[in-house]
Write a structure and sequence with these properties.
The protein folds into three domains: 100 residues, Alpha-Beta Plaits, CATH 3.30.70; 121 residues, 3-Layer(aba) Sandwich (Dna Topoisomerase Vi A Subunit, Chain: A, domain 2), CATH 3.40.1360; 113 residues, 3-Layer(aba) Sandwich (Cytidine Deaminase, domain 2). Helix content is 41%, strand content 23%. It has a five-stranded antiparallel beta sheet with strand order 2-3-1-5-4. The longest helix has 43 residues. The chain is elongated.
Length: 399
């Protein structure tokens, strides 16, 4: 709304609601018409405007479902008492045109106080700018040299010539980021094993690297970062997921936020489970696959009555994204959504069997082991590197 600059002491802010469709001129006309003569000649609204002691009435109003609702602003240069009387008079308006209406005063703002606050805040900004410019001036030479060295250290890696840090080959792990500027920022803070996708499609260079090295996807905290992450999870063998804070980009994060994001990374399978994303899994060595198949064959040969019950429960909840929790006697404790399963395990002590419509992950097994769960039954096995000896794992393949 536009405020009259000639009135600078107080601002009356009111809310109006009308039982019908009305426009701005209707509201202003009702205010003048229904307050005329109400407060005597000294506080007549028209005379006050002519003498510039009251500014122009501003109204913003919207119509919806046959009703109107909006805001009224009335600036004044009257004293506190007169302003309060004028505000009270506005609440006496009970009709706008043919429609019933109600005006409610929300607040009377001292414009001078607001101006002082703005002056103080602006002064703080200007002071901070002066300090920052002074600091940058002192660091400019060393920073320029540092950035030049960092730019020289970035290499074009692989057939796709992906921007990467100089230690991409030496390190057992890599960090996959979105662009060259992300690699530069990580390099600036001493992280030398990052490599950039640099586009919307994932380069084969990165897909091949993800098969050989422990791979963390570190993407922006916006919608674009989410889309790239989804594609990475589907075509590359990602082990961990790290995200910049919401709306922030990796290229502009300071050291502390970079370290915090990487420290709080989560397993890719856990992320995929949370957001129902199909992911590409790490290929296991042939000997490990053979051993797992041998164990599965042996387990299939010994199908106990309890396992038959677990299978029946699993069949019942398949497709529901639910989990059934049983106690040591096989009695059902409760049925919950799969997304609440890990939290429930952490806070409940008497759970001995978990049957759920989902993928068995390393994180779930670790929590189950810590909480004394003896059996976990799921749809299929995820990328489990170390299966706890205290937890028996069954999947649909076992039945």
């Amino acid at each position: 709304m536009v405020m009259d600059p000639s009135t600078t002491k107080y601002m009356i802010r009111a809310h109006i609601k009308a039982e019908g469709v009305v426009e701005k001129p209707d509201v202003i006309g009702a205010i003048f018409g229904q307050t005329e003569g109400l407060l005597g000649e000294e506080l007549d609204l028209r005379d006050l405007q002519k003498s510039a002691r009251v500014g122009r009435i501003e109204v913003e109003i919207e119509q919806k479902n046959g009703k109107s609702e909006g805001t009224i602003l009335l600036p004044t240069s009257l004293d506190k008492v007169e302003t309060a009387i004028l505000a009270a008079a506005l609440e006496s308006v009970d009709r706008v045109g043919p429609c019933k209406a109600k005006i409610t005063i929300e607040k009377i703002e001292d414009v001078r106080v607001a101006k002082r606050k703005r002056v103080i805040e602006r002064a703080k900004e200007l002071l901070a700018q002066i300090i920052e410019e002074s600091r940058e001036e002192g660091e400019s030479i060393s920073e320029s040299v540092r950035q030049a060295v960092q730019a020289e250290e970035i290499i074009a890696y692989g057939p796709d010539r992906c921007p990467a840090g100089p230690d991409i080959d030496k390190s057992d792990s890599i960090i996959v980021v979105e662009g060259r500027r992300d690699v530069l920022n990580l390099l600036k803070h001493g992280i030398r094993n990052a490599i950039a996708v640099e586009g919307t499609s994932i380069p084969k260079t990165i897909i091949d690297l993800s098969k050989e090295k422990i791979t963390t996807a570190f993407v922006d905290g916006d919608r674009g970062g989410e889309l790239i992450l989804r594609e990475l999870l589907q075509v590359a063998e990602i082990d961990f997921v790290a995200r910049a804070p919401p709306t922030r980009e990796v290229e502009e994060l300071p050291y502390k936020l970079i370290m915090k994001a990487l420290k709080n990374k989560i397993p890719a399978e856990q992320y995929a489970e949370m957001y129902n994303i199909e992911i590409k899994r790490k290929e296991k060595p042939e000997e490990e696959i053979k051993e797992e198949r041998r164990e599965e064959r042996e387990e299939k040969m010994i199908l106990s009555d309890e396992q038959k019950r677990y299978r029946e429960i699993l069949d019942e909840i398949t497709g529901t994204l639910k989990a059934v929790l049983l106690d040591k006697d096989g009695k059902e404790i409760k049925k919950i959504p799969v997304r609440e399963l890990t939290d429930e395990l952490k806070k409940t002590n008497n759970i001995k069997v978990v049957v759920f419509d989902g993928v068995v992950t390393q994180r779930l097994l670790d929590i189950a082991s810590d909480r004394g769960v003896g059996v976990v039954v799921g749809i299929k096995m995820g990328n489990v590197i170390k299966k706890p000896t205290s937890v028996k794992v069954l999947t649909r393949d076992h039945f």
